[in-house]
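hi!! sorry for the late reply, been swamped w classes. u asked for the two structures so here they r. pasted raw, havent cleaned anything up. first the sequence of the first protein and right below it the C-alpha cells
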Amino acid sequence: MTYVVTESCIRCKYTDCVEVCPVDCFHEGPNFLVIDPDECIDCTLCVPECPVNAIFAEDDLPEDQKKFTEINADLAKKWPVLTEKKDAPADAAEWENKPDKLKYLER
C-alpha cells in the first residue's frame, strides 16, 4: 500500500507534509505534490501534516479520488523530489475548499 495525494492539494500545494517524510517520496509540480508509490513506506507521518486533508492511504481513497493513484505514480516519474518545506502559493487559502480542481492540475 502507498499514500496518495488527492485533488484537495491542487493549487493549494502546502508542503508541510514534505519535511516529515523519512524517505523523500514527495515530488513537486507547478501546482500540486505527488507521492512516489515506489518510495513510500506507509509510515503515515504525512497525513496529519496536510492542512487540507489531501493525503489518503490508497485503500482508503474516496471513490471519486481513486484516479489520483495513477496520477501520483505517473507524475512522480516526471517531477523532481521535494525535501524541504516551501511557502504555499499566495492564493492557496482561496483554493482550500474548492471542488473539482483536477482541471487546474498543471503537468
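now the second protein. again sequence first, C-alpha cells right under
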Amino acid sequence: MPRMTVNERPVEFVMNPETPLLWALRDAANLTGTKFGCGTGDCGACMVLIDGEALRSCLITIAEAEGRFVTTIEGLSRDRSHPVQQALVAQQAVQCGFCTPGIAIAAAALIQRNSDPSKQEIEAAVPNLCRCGVYPRLVAAIQQAGRVARRQERISAAPASGISGKDAARTVPAMAAPEVEAAPLD
C-alpha cells in the first residue's frame, strides 16, 4: 500500500494504488481543505504541495505520490500564520472560500521560490479558477505575502477561527500536531 508523508506525518493508504490523491486525502485522511472542483485538473481547487511543488491532487494517484512529502492547506500553517494566508485575509481576497485552499497552496509554492513575483509571474504560477473573481486582490495579496516573506512588511494576525486547535484535532485527527517521536511504519 502506498506510503508517504502528509503534513509531516507518515501515512499509509490502504486503498487501490490508482486512487487519486485528492480522494485519499479527503476520504481516508479526512483532510477536506483540499477541494474537489472539476476532477480534470483545470480549476486548481485540489492543489497540494508535493515535495514543495504545487500540483493538482486530482491528477496524481497515491501510487505516484508514494515516498513523497505532501502538504495540504491544513499543513501549510496550523494557526493560519503563513504569509499567504495572512495576506489573503488582509487584502480581502477571499470570497466564498471554495477555491482559496488551492490558491493559497499555489501562491505559497510561488513565494517559496520567488518572494518578489511580478503580476505576470503570479498569473502564470497561480492558474486557479475563482468564480467570485478575486483576481485583482489576489495579485495584491501575493505581492504582500512576498514582502512579508522578505521581512519588509508585517501583517496583523488574521482573526481567530473560533475553534481551538485541540477541538479541531479531535474532529479532524490529521490536524493534530505531529508527535515528537513518530513510530516507524512496519
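hope this helps!! also noticed smth abt the second:
The longest helix spans residues 135-149.
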